[in-house]
Amino acid sequence: MAVRIRFSRLGCRHRPFYRVVAADSKSPRNGKQLEVLGHYDPLPGQDGGKRMGLKFDRLNSMKSYMSSLLFSSQLNHV
Asked: Is DNA damage one of the keywords (predicted)?
């Protein structure tokens, strides 16, 4: 199972809102996700800035989880 970090689209038409998710690479964009890692709002707010929030502790744990999957899959092919 290959895990990818990508956006999942939410919101209405012409008002997108995205979640940063960890998902299986074979699942569709808005399909089953392993974990929600943050959010991204591409539309500027009242201050003119775009907003992004990430859960860095969960992001680091997913990164270590993905590297362990990669390492174990390389061992299986040797």
From this structure: no
